[in-house]
Design brief:
2 domains
């Protein structure tokens, strides 16, 4: 295996990094990147409400993630329609699955983004926020896994109930997060 690495490097035109490469990179970072570094203070001190600020921050993460999820699912459906045998394609492309993707993708993305924003704004350490985010999302992972493995049988009523619960959770979580968000703590690093 290790004998192939030089061949791959040579074929792709790569070479081993040197100290001069590191110095060149440091110079480039210092001259071209750092002068354009964006600090959060001007954004945090803009004359908008905290709800508007958090909405913009959430939408900046939500819109691309949902668009990418839909695009990947569309590519999957196209590949199944083109390359799969008709019996396999009809088993994989079903109306309820399409509806579940369209309905639950933005709701689950909004939940995870809201939880992430709320925890990261209140936690003093990013690792704590990540661990709490995983912990808070475990019930959703458990329910979706149980549905995927047919332990809980998916019905229209269950789907509508889960969608309503997620919508309610997203709305309540948004209100709680907006109420506990503190710009001053983010700018100064201290609690107000």
């Amino acid at each position: 295996m290790w004998l192939r690495v030089p061949i791959i490097r040579q074929a792709l035109g790569f070479r081993e990094a040197t100290v001069q490469d590191a110095n060149d990179l440091a110079t480039w970072l210092g001259q071209d990147v750092l002068p354009h570094e964006h600090r959060p203070e001007p954004v945090l001190t803009t004359p908008i409400t905290r709800e508007e600020f958090l909405l913009g921050k959430a939408l900046a993460a939500l819109v691309p993630s949902v668009a990418i999820a839909y695009a990947v699912y569309a590519v999957f459906l196209a590949c199944v329609a083109i390359f799969a045998r008709p019996g396999v394609a009809s088993a994989l492309i079903r109306g309820p699955d399409l509806l579940a993707q369209l309905l639950f993708t933005p709701l689950l993305a909004a939940w995870s983004i809201g939880v992430g924003l709320g925890l990261s704004a209140r936690a003093s350490d990013i690792r704590v926020a990540q661990q709490l985010g995983v912990l808070v999302s475990l019930p959703l992972v458990a329910v979706t896994s149980l549905i995927a493995f047919n332990v809980i049988h998916a019905t229209l009523g269950l789907a509508l109930g889960l969608a309503a619960a997620l919508l309610l959770g997203d709305g309540l979580g948004w209100r709680i997060m907006a109420a506990t968000f503190d710009r001053e703590r983010l700018v100064t690093g201290t609690r107000s």
